[in-house]
């Protein structure tokens, strides 16, 4: 009976979607955390997560790879962030041209007052933050990270090593002179 | 299998627990007798540990309902319907007027194409499938004519079909290659729909003799007047179609 099989296939696809939604719901807090670490701003982070989920849901059928769902979503979100960032940087440069100011660069003030790990982390480059979050916090494998960044595993390892050194230096306060700045 | 002394990469892989058990034991043994390297590795481990702790709070944010997958799915569906709608307008424009360029053949092609095909397509998209939303809806009194006059000043008056129980309910503007078109949908109590369609005759001023034709399940009455072409479309084999054919004088 065609009617019955139609009903069945609708029910099956409904279950399938519920299953996907369930998996996504579990990962959303991790996506939001990653997005905050990239944007440093909770509300634009959620915008980023939303557009990441939109992209994921609309390309699920033909793009979703077999591997870790988390890694796939991280890679979508990361690319979208880079695209948006590039656009806003272009805009910031234009603004700088007209106003003679540049708000996008961290000030010297901000550079020197890194005292906690989180503050140090916030001063790393975008890619270094992403790398450390993926590897140290989320525990992705080097291979998964290499796929996200589309570089060889060896490159991931050397970039990771640089990121670690940078974090170490910043949280060690090797370039910290807060008292000097504060007194000024 | 790694070789000793471990490279810096091996040490990072050790920190990230991405070494095999055997390699891991090798590095353990090495670190036990190399205090300086061990301190370096421990510092990395501590940084990672602190980072995990510092970022764990970010997992506890209150949920944002806008990020619910089911909701996003719905939003996407609405969006794609809207995209489909603008694609449909394009489709009407293309399929009606996609022949321009070859002046010599144009007349032949236009006359080979059944008249007012766009009116039938518009009926399918708007009245039947509801893909394109209305631009204008009649509230209480019938000011549909006023809406239409804003765009088509000298066009024929909207036919009065109230005797048959049909009243204008909504209007929609469309773009065709012949120029802007408007479609007014009439509805009766039973939800049956008839459309009134008006557009310019196009650059070749292709006016139509009064005629009637059916296309699939639909029937169109068409004519020209006041510098425009018109069509009234309804499902064939319905009392409404009969009425349009026989009694309505345009």
Report the CATH C-level class of the largest domain in chain B.
Answer: Alpha Beta
What is the overall pLDDT average of chain A? 76
- Compressed to H and E, one letter per element, the order of chain B equals HHHHHHEHEEEEEEH
Task: Determine the CATH topology of the largest domain in chain A.
Answer: Rna Polymerase Sigma Factor, Chain: A
- Radius of gyration of chain B, CA atoms, in whole angstroms: 35 Å
**Can you identify the CATH superfamily of the largest domain in chain A?**
RNA polymerase sigma factor, region 2, helix turn helix motif
| CATH architecture verdict of the largest domain in chain A | Orthogonal Bundle
Low-confidence stretches of chain A: 1-7, 101-114, 175-184
Compute the separation of the termini of chain A in Å: 84 Å
Count of strand segments of chain A? 0
* CA-atom Rg of chain A in angstroms: 21 Å
| Proportion in helices of chain A | over 70%
Care to count the β-strands of chain B? 7
Number of helices of chain A: 10
| CATH class group of the largest domain in chain A | Mainly Alpha
Your description of this structure?
The complex is a heterodimer of chains A (184) and B (250). With 184 residues, chain A is mainly alpha-helical. Chain A is built from ten helices and no strands. In chain A, helix 1 (2-39) runs antiparallel to helix 2 (42-58), helix 4 (69-99) packs across helix 8 and helix 7 crosses helix 9. Chain A has two domains: 16-104, Rna Polymerase Sigma Factor, Chain: A (Orthogonal Bundle), CATH 1.10.1740; 106-184, Arc Repressor Mutant, subunit A, CATH 1.10.10.10. In chain A, 27% of the residues are buried. Chain A has helices at residues 2-39, 42-58, 60-63, 69-99, 108-112, 117-122, 126-137, 142-149, 153-172, 178-183. Chain A starts with a helix and ends with a helix. The longest helix of chain A has 38 residues, at 2-39. Chain B is α+β, with helices and mostly antiparallel strands and 250 residues long. Chain B has two domains: 8-55, no CATH class; 70-246, 2-Layer Sandwich (Phosphorylase Kinase, domain 1), CATH 3.30.200. Helix content of chain B is 44%, strand content 20%. Chain B has a seven-stranded antiparallel beta sheet with strand order 1-2-3-4-7-6-5, with helices on both faces. In chain B, strand 2 and strand 3 (179-187) form a beta hairpin. Chain B is rod-shaped.
């Amino acid at each position: 009976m065609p009617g019955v099989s139609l009903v069945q296939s609708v029910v099956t696809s409904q279950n399938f979607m519920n299953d996907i939604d369930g998996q996504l719901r579990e990962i959303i807090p991790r996506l939001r955390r990653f997005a905050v670490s990239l944007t440093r701003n909770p509300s634009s982070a959620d915008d980023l997560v939303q557009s990441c989920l939109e992209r994921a849901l609309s390309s699920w059928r033909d793009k979703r790879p077999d591997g870790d769902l988390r890694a796939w979503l991280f890679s979508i979100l990361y690319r979208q962030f880079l695209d948006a960032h590039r656009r806003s940087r272009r805009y910031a440069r234009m603004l700088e041209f007209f106003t003679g100011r540049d708000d996008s660069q961290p000030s010297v003030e901000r550079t020197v007052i890194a005292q906690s790990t989180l503050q140090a982390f916030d001063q790393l480059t975008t890619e270094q933050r992403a790398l450390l979050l993926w590897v140290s916090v989320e525990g992705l494998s080097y291979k998964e990270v290499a796929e996200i960044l589309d570089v060889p595993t060896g490159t991931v390892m050397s970039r990771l090593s640089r990121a670690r050194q940078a974090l170490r230096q910043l949280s060690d306060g090797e370039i910290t002179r807060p008292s000097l700045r504060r007194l000024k | 299998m790694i070789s000793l002394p471990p490279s810096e990469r091996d040490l990072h892989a050790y920190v990230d627990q991405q070494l095999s058990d055997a390699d891991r034991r090798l590095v353990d043994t090495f670190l036990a007798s190399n205090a300086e390297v061990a301190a370096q590795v421990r510092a990395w481990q501590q940084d990672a540990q602190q980072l995990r702790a510092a970022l764990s709070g970010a997992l506890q944010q209150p949920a944002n309902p806008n990020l619910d997958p089911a909701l996003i799915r719905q939003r996407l569906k609405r969006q794609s319907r809207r995209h489909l709608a603008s694609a449909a307008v394009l489709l009407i424009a293309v399929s009606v007027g996609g022949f321009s360029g070859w002046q010599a053949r144009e007349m032949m092609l236009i006359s080979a194409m059944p008249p007012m095909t766009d009116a039938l397509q518009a009926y399918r998209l708007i009245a039947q499938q509801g893909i394109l939303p209305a631009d204008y809806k009649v509230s209480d009194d019938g000011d549909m004519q006023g809406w239409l006059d804003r765009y088509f000043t000298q066009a024929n008056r909207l036919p009065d079909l109230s005797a048959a129980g049909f009243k204008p309910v909504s209007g929609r503007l469309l773009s065709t290659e012949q120029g802007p078109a408007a479609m007014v949908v009439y509805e009766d109590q039973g939800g049956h729909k008839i459309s009134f369609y008006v557009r310019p005759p196009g650059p070749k001023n292709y006016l139509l003799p009064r005629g009637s034709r059916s296309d699939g399940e639909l029937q169109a009455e068409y004519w020209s007047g006041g510098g425009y072409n018109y069509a009234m479309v309804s499902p064939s084999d319905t009392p409404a179609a009969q009425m349009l054919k026989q009694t309505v004088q345009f």
